[in-house]
Amino acid sequence: MGTQNNSFKDIIVFGFALFAMFFGAGNLIFPPYLGIITGPQWLVGFGGFTFADAGLALLAVMATAKYDGNVIALFKRAGYKLAVVLACADILCIGPFLAIPRTGATTYEMGVMPLLGTTIPIAVFAVIFFVITYVLTIKPSKVVDIVGQFLTPALLIALAVIIIKGVIQPLGPIVEEPMIDGVVAEGIAQGYQTMDAFAAIALASVLIVSLNEKGYSTVGDKLKVILKAGALACVGLALVYGGLCFLGATVSTMYGVDAQQSQVLVNITEGLLGYAGKAVLAVCVALACLTTSIGLTSATGQFFEKLSNGKLSYGKVVLAVCVFSACMASIGVGGIVAVAAPVLSVVYPPTIVLVVLAFFTEKINNDNVYKFAVYTALVISVLTVLTGYGINIPLVNSLPLAGLGFNWVVPTIIAGIIGHFVPGKNSEKELA
């Protein structure tokens, strides 16, 4: 009875928790830039972005919740080896290869540079940032909880002021034509870049522990709360992303596709609210990046300690992550985004396939459905990335939904159907 009485309060609490989980400082970088390059079609681009970011993240949390936060269990029906490789790839993306270094680089470009210029080199700052990350991750401090507790409201208030001012007094007119072709595909690609779906998979176990403590014992009860809380979080994210996209569109006559993504919002804020606004935004972004860095570093350490059965200790993994991330952060946000794009384009589709199939796992009695679908998504994703490097593979761009960036969807569905008719086992039932 107590669980029912508290469910509304829990939905609100978990809704804000999911919002904070999905909304890292990296999410500030992409929507304004997307608004610039899509111009009059910013609303269309924003739709693609929100789907690929908040929509997929919510699906990922719910899918992982079905397996009590165990990523390998979520992926294993595609084959244990592939499950381990894909889970490691996902964790490394939100870990030392892409997301964690980006927190340091973003802090430098949106927090330090606007206020202090380049008096502190990025390499020196990256070392300082990740030493702090290491200390607070190895010995968790109440400082992190305090910052997390007050940071999200502070950042939201700051953004609300910026967005409302930008709507009432736009900085400029919106360009007449988008600067790019394929607005929806670009929105989806930018949404991928946030890596929130990967973060959701990695951090879902935190939510599961909290739900268990609050008395939600069945998978159905947990999914119900996560769905409602997730809907609340997604509405909040959509409002913020929509506002930031619109702000970007209002400065589309001042920037081009070569705009430095991390500087767009800083410059917009200064244009709307002056130096004081820029300083407040810089502090909020710096704190948001630090808490994100600590959370993701901790999740990476826990994952590899568990995967290696303790052979890789939490402390050693955290140290390695911080050292590598400091090196990666030194190439700057632009460099990290350039590295991230092809990697994410390969890893995301098979991950999405496994997340979607997780909702039908009881109905699917043949593991070949998973294997055929996942490997097809993986192969097409690799071929698509290769075409981006000038290798001519005509079939890839002529597949259905290629214009939307979803050329892997129809072949993957067909492959899954074929897999259903190829005799195979049901590893889920065997392990049950």
Automatic annotation (TrEMBL):
The keyword Protein transport does not apply. The chain crosses the membrane at residues 12-30, 42-61, 82-100, 120-138, 150-172, 192-211, 232-255, 275-296, 317-337, 343-360, 372-395, 401-422. InterPro entries: Brnchd-chn_aa_trnsp_Livcs. Keywords: Amino-acid transport, Cell membrane, Membrane, Transmembrane, Transmembrane helix, Transport. It is a multi-pass membrane protein. The keyword Transport applies. It is found in: Cell membrane. One of its GO terms (cellular component) is plasma membrane. It holds the Pfam family Branch_AA_trans. Its main location: membrane. It comes from the Bacteria. GO terms for molecular function: L-isoleucine transmembrane transporter activity; L-leucine transmembrane transporter activity; L-valine transmembrane transporter activity. Component of the transport system for branched-chain amino acids. NCBIfam families: livcs. PANTHER family: BRANCHED-CHAIN AMINO ACID PERMEASE BRNQ (PTHR30588:SF0), BRANCHED-CHAIN AMINO ACID TRANSPORT SYSTEM 2 CARRIER PROTEIN (PTHR30588). This is Branched-chain amino acid transport system carrier protein. It comes from Peptacetobacter hominis.
